[in-house]
């Protein structure tokens, strides 16, 4: 087993490899089941109850019936009978296999283990099965792609088994030298399928690549085969991006808008039909509001018209036009042109006003609420928006002229339409005007629009698209390394050289050698990160435009189609890294689980951290299981394409956007802790869609930079022990919260307090209890065990809390507290003697009084108080008060606070809350109910 690996995942890994290689093994169905039972129980010495025993004694221990007790017990616990009903008939065989599963078994031990005459399968078959289990066991210890010795031992054992079928095998591999997360995973998946079709057996999916078993003979793999492989990888990516162009078409308040990237992956025909479909389903506009706006404009123009005025202006315009043709003086000509422009506008206003009066008779200037007309008008508006974005560079006047020309709108109608707002009103008025002309020509109009756009939109996009996919093929050819194909050798210095020598703009995300395009800053997915070679600093941070290469463009498109979201989210990426490798069976099982959610139309799984940790109270932390609920956005996003989950699993986490960054960090920590234990994997969570650390560069989890407020408690290397103890911390925090009737908020608040020390934490919790309950004693009793466990997580404040606790117990035992005037005891009564001491110490002038003077003064002031309020005041109380003050001065002031009065003053509220908490706890334990009888 690998370091920190659980027995369960070790067995799952072995079974996964066996599932792949079983077709080449000389074993029958029964023999395979015997072997699987042996694999399942082979590490009996790793079970807690057998921890102190030798392996030989574990598998040899017999019950009164002469049966191997530990072997049978484990088989019964695991319900082996359901899988293999006749397993008891093969116990000797199973015992022999597990007894020799380790290659380190001595010959002396072998003789003690083996009883060949009692084998049901026969000695030769047992030898074969022993070779197989040894192979599987040793391969799981091969933690990295480049480890060789354990793979060699695996191969030797496999060949020892397969020689009985007359075949021998060798190990080959492929790697991809640069990790781009989902894009790289899809390529790994495609390559593995490609080689499997050629008879290769993929046995281990490492983060960097896949190792295969293949028959030990010459492999025929030509240049054409490699080209086909590259083409397959490119097609796998391209098909997913092209499959869902619709995510680049957005319904927004200003209409239906098409992202420019959509033009790279879909035809104009597909885009227009999608727009048309959305127009039919879009939200119905507020007709009343639009008609009110129209009425305001109509009222403005309706009083302008007069027949005499119209004729006068016509004459003036004609006169000005004649004068302009004959005028030679430049200044006079300029004045004439200015006058002509002004009078032309007046003439236009007169004509529009007259036109409005004519339409007013039938009120045809208002928008009809007819559903079909509204949908048609929305389609016209989308057509206008499309032209404005991609044909005329957002020139609204020119755009509308093109729309008018397309629909053959006459001059007076154009002048009338131009008086209305161009985006929210005018398209609806135009739609009303021409609806009757096209209502029976719907398909004809659609095709006309498609042809018009195809003819007018620059075909530059096609060239860019072809270049982009050619770059991808070149990128894949440079980065896919196949162990038995020697024409392509990756050298990092070559990559560095091409980076340094490239002329012109480099990609702001990866600094690759490929040609770049300028993107506006808001469009750049700045969180993309590439491993293993990339610029660690984002280039061009202050620029309004960024240079993005075609490979990063493809990667961004792939993200968009894999994880669709209609709203902006706060996103992190969860990378689940195998301790060594994944198997194809494990990958398949993980994908099927994800697909189940997808099939139920679940786009996101919300991680219910509250219930997850509460259910773990009083249970083994290693059994923690994350609980999820269906969500629309927040939580783990479900991918549209499961092929993105291959050599390692990377999933976006959508956090609650309104939460502050500190709360988000705690949420990511909870994800990491839970998934680390549940999947028995290493976990990286960051803002980047690739893990920024490899497995050998970290302990168990990585969750980014710890917020300053939590550095005292969470600045760790995150070993297995630290992960388990932190998980226990959260189990206690959440269970405490539930016991107090609180939700997750108190967990975050109390964590901030805990990071400042134990007294701060107790103050935080005690303050909440006092707010909710008149008598918090019963709740203190319920949560005390959780408090103790939580406090044990931090060392800071351990001494002072212990001293305050002793002082509180002493005070309770000796009734050193203030008077009670009926009802439950109040904090001012509990803290009365302590307040007297603190107040005196805070006023202590060390130039006038010695410590002995102040100690005597504290004793005297408390004694004077009890003389007034305690009718039984006497020698016993005097002695108790003296002991109480001495205990405070020695343990709290001197030992815990180093005699620093300013520390006492700063910690006053925390000390008083901690003292009250432990005083009440002492009351409960001594059966004092805290009320006056």
Automatic annotation (TrEMBL):
Residue runs in coiled coils: 138-165
Protein name per UniProt: CRISPR type I-D/CYANO-associated protein Csc3/Cas10d
InterPro entries per the UniProt record, alphabetical: CRISPR-assoc_prot_Cas10d/Csc3
NCBIfam families documented for this protein: cas_Csc3
Keywords in alphabetical order: Coiled coil
Organism for this UniProt entry: Clostridium putrefaciens
Highest taxon of the lineage: Bacteria
């Amino acid at each position: 087993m690998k370091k920190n690996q659980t027995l369960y995942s070790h067995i799952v890994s072995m079974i996964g490899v066996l599932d792949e290689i079983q077709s080449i093994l000389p074993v029958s169905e029964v023999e395979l089941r015997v072997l699987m039972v042996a694999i399942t129980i082979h590490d009996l010495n790793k079970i807690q109850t057998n921890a102190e025993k030798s392996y030989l004694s574990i598998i040899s221990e017999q019950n009164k019936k002469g049966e191997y007790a530990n072997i049978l017990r484990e088989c019964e616990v695991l319900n082996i009978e359901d899988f293999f009903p006749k397993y008891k008939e093969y116990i000797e065989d199973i015992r022999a296999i597990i007894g020799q599963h380790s290659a380190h078994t001595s010959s002396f031990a072998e003789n003690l283990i083996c009883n060949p005459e009692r084998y049901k399968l026969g000695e030769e078959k047992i030898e074969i099965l022993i070779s197989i289990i040894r192979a599987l066991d040793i391969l799981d210890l091969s933690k990295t792609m480049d480890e060789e010795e354990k793979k060699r031992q695996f191969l030797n054992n496999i060949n020892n088994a397969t020689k009985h079928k007359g075949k021998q095998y060798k190990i080959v591999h492929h790697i991809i030298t640069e990790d781009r997360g989902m894009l790289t995973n899809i390529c790994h998946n495609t390559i593995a399928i490609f080689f499997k079709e050629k008879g290769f057996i993929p046995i281990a999916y490492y983060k960097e690549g896949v190792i295969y078993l293949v028959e030990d003979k010459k492999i025929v793999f030509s240049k054409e085969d490699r080209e086909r492989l590259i083409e397959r990888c490119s097609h796998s990516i391209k098909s997913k991006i092209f499959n869902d162009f619709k995510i680049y078409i957005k319904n927004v308040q200003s209409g239906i808008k098409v992202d420019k990237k959509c033009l790279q992956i879909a035809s104009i025909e597909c885009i227009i039909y999608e727009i048309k479909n959305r127009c039919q389903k879009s939200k119905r506009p507020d007709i009343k509001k639009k008609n009110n706006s129209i009425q305001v404009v109509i009222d403005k123009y309706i009083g302008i018209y007069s027949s005499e005025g119209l004729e006068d202006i016509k004459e003036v315009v004609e006169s000005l036009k004649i004068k302009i043709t004959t005028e030679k003086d430049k200044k006079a000509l300029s004045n004439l042109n200015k006058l002509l422009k002004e009078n032309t506008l007046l003439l236009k206003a007169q004509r529009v006003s007259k036109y409005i009066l004519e339409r007013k008779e039938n009120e045809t200037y208002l928008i009809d609420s007819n559903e079909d007309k509204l949908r048609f008008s929305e389609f016209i508006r989308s057509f206008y928006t499309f032209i404005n974005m991609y044909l005329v560079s957002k020139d609204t006047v020119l755009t509308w002229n093109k729309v008018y020309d397309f629909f053959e709108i006459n001059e007076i109608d154009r002048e009338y339409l131009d008086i209305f707002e161009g985006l929210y009103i005018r398209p609806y008025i135009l739609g009303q005007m021409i609806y009757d002309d096209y209502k029976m020509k719907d398909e004809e109009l659609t095709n006309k629009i498609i042809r018009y756009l195809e003819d007018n939109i620059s075909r530059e996009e096609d060239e860019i698209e072809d270049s982009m996919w050619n770059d991808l093929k070149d990128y894949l050819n440079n980065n896919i390394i196949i162990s038995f194909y020697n024409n392509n050798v990756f050298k990092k210095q070559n990559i560095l050289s091409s980076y340094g020598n490239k002329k012109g703009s480099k990609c702001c995300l990866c600094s690759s050698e490929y040609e770049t395009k300028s993107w506006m800053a808001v469009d750049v997915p700045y969180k993309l990160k590439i491993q293993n070679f990339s610029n660690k600093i984002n280039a061009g941070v202050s620029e309004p435009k960024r240079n993005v290469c075609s490979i990063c463009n493809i990667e961004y498109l792939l993200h968009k189609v894999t994880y669709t979201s209609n709203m902006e989210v706060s996103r992190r990426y969860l990378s689940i890294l195998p301790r060594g490798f994944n198997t194809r069976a494990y990958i398949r099982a993980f994908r099927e689980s994800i697909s189940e959610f997808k099939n139920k139309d679940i786009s996101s799984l919300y991680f219910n951290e509250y219930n997850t940790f509460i259910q773990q109270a009083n249970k083994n932390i290693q059994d923690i299981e994350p609980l999820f609920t269906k969500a629309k956005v927040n939580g783990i996003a479900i991918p549209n394409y499961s092929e993105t989950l291959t050599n390692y699993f990377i999933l976006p986490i959508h956090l609650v956007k309104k939460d502050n960054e500190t709360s988000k960090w705690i949420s990511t920590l909870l994800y990491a802790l839970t998934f680390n234990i549940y999947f028995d994997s290493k976990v990286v969570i960051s803002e980047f869609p690739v893990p920024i650390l490899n497995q050998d560069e970290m302990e168990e989890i990585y969750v980014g930079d710890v917020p300053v407020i939590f550095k005292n408690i969470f600045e760790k290397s995150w070993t297995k022990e630290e992960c388990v103890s932190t998980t226990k911390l959260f189990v206690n925090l959440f269970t405490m919260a539930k016991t107090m009737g609180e939700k997750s908020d108190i967990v975050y608040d109390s964590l901030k307090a805990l990071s400042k020390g134990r007294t701060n934490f107790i103050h935080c919790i005690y303050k909440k209890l006092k707010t909710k309950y008149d008598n918090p004693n019963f709740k203190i009793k319920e949560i005390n065990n959780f408090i103790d466990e939580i406090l044990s997580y931090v060392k800071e404040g351990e001494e002072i809390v212990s001293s305050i606790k002793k002082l509180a117990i002493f005070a309770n035992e000796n009734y050193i507290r203030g008077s009670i005037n009926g009802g439950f005891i109040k904090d001012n009564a509990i803290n009365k003697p302590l307040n007297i001491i603190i107040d005196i110490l805070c006023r202590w002038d060390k130039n006038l009084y010695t410590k002995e003077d102040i100690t005597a003064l504290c004793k005297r002031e408390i004694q004077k108080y009890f003389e007034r309020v305690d009718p039984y005041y006497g020698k016993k109380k005097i002695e108790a008060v003296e002991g109480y003050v001495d205990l405070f001065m020695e343990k709290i002031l001197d030992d815990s606070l180093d005699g620093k009065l300013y520390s006492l003053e700063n910690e006053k509220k925390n000390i008083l809350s901690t003292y009250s908490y432990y005083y009440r706890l002492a009351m409960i334990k001594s059966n004092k109910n805290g009320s006056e009888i």
